[in-house]
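Long-time lurker, first post. I've been practising inverse folding by hand and with some scripts of my own, and I keep getting stuck on stretches where the structure tokens seem ambiguous. Below is the full token string for one chain I'm working on. Before anyone asks, I'm not after the true native sequence, just a reasonable design that respects the backbone. If someone could post their per-position residues I'd love to compare against what I wrote down in my notebook.
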């Protein structure tokens, strides 16, 4: 895979940052490509040179998050043997990301975000579960991903004082006993 040109990365980062700022102000569904381009200080044609629509920019940002989480999961799995099932190894890195971007995730978890964002996050979490637990059936994978999303929402709304590690430990203690390790 060819390395992306610095100017391209800079433009994509500006578009991403503009999208996040606008999401925090208005919500994803209410923003337009023109607003994203204006906030990023690029022309609409520049936006369209990189993305077909705002949903593509969103998908790209979720893909970047997935890749970053995967690196952290891989590093954690290779360093030490963990008591946590491999299917749940994404939970702590994801919770730490949520803590870092609490305002953004709180917006999505309280129903002010886009259904598309919720769907993409759920798909990402289900993908991590599926990869770490290939013998898990579809219902179990979907239930764990959905339960993780509900846990994040509960944390942000009802117990924001908890540390990411505490939230994940509670989630894992609830879910893991139902997962037979092979």
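-- Answer (accepted) --
I ran through it position by position. Result:
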């Amino acid at each position: 895979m060819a390395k992306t040109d610095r100017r391209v990365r800079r433009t994509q980062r500006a578009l991403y940052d503009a999208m996040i700022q606008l999401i925090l102000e208005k919500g994803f569904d209410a923003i337009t490509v023109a607003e994203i381009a204006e906030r990023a200080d690029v022309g609409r044609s520049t936006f369209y040179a990189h993305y077909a629509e705002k949903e593509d920019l969103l998908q790209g940002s979720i893909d970047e998050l997935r890749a970053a989480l995967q690196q952290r999961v891989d590093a954690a799995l290779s360093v030490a043997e963990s008591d946590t099932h491999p299917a749940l190894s994404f939970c702590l890195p994801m919770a730490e990301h949520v803590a870092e971007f609490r305002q953004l995730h709180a917006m999505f978890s309280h129903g002010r975000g886009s259904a598309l964002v919720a769907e993409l996050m759920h798909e990402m979490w289900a993908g991590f579960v599926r990869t770490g637990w290939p013998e898990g059936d579809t219902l179990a994978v979907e239930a764990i991903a959905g339960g993780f999303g509900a846990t994040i929402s509960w944390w942000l709304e009802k117990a924001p004082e908890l540390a990411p590690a505490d939230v994940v430990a509670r989630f894992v203690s609830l879910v893991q006993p139902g997962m037979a390790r092979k």
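A couple of notes from the structure itself: DSSP finds nine helices and no strands in the chain. Residues 1-51 form a domain with the Arc Repressor Mutant, subunit A fold (CATH 1.10.10.60). Happy to go over any region you disagree with.
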